[in-house]
Amino acid sequence: MNLPESYIPILIQAGVAVAFVAVSLLGAHFLGPQQKKGNSVKNQSWECGVPVEGNARTPFSIKYFLTAVLFVLFDIEIVFFYPYAVNFREFGFEGFFAVLTFVAIFFVAFFYVWKRGALDWDK
């Protein structure tokens, strides 16, 4: 097998990564604590000493997931400002107007979400 010499460090790094994952998983399995099978009191879930109420499979309100998605959406927006902040002089007026357009689109999205009631926590 003839590989270019530039691939050898990449293959070594990939091999070390795969070996680390395998050793970690096998080590955790064989060296970690072994739990006994069954439904003993010791294996039950406890949260701050309070007895468990209900089933863990109870569905959450959609507001929780909507809030998480909106947070990620508007948080990722900030990531795209970093290249502009670092290179704003090189971008000139074209870059400035591109960023204004980007911000305007997100303001439209924000007002849409606001008008649809996604930010009303009481409902």
Automatic annotation (TrEMBL):
Membrane topology summary: Multi-pass membrane protein
InterPro entries per the UniProt record, alphabetical: NAD(P)H_OxRDtase_bac/plastid, NADH_UbQ/plastoQ_OxRdtase_su3, NDAH_ubi_oxred_su3_sf
GO cellular component, one term: plasma membrane
Enzyme class, broadest EC rank: translocase
Entry keyword Lipoprotein: no
Alphabetical UniProt keywords: Cell membrane, Membrane, NAD, Quinone, Translocase, Transmembrane, Transmembrane helix, Transport
TM segment ranges: 6-32, 64-84, 96-114
PANTHER family in the record: NADH-QUINONE OXIDOREDUCTASE SUBUNIT A, NADH-UBIQUINONE OXIDOREDUCTASE CHAIN 3
Function field: NDH-1 shuttles electrons from NADH, via FMN and iron-sulfur (Fe-S) centers, to quinones in the respiratory chain. The immediate electron acceptor for the enzyme in this species is believed to be a menaquinone. Couples the redox reaction to proton translocation (for every two electrons transferred, four hydrogen ions are translocated across the cytoplasmic membrane), and thus conserves the redox energy in a proton gradient.
Family: Belongs to the complex I subunit 3 family.
Protein name: NADH-quinone oxidoreductase subunit A
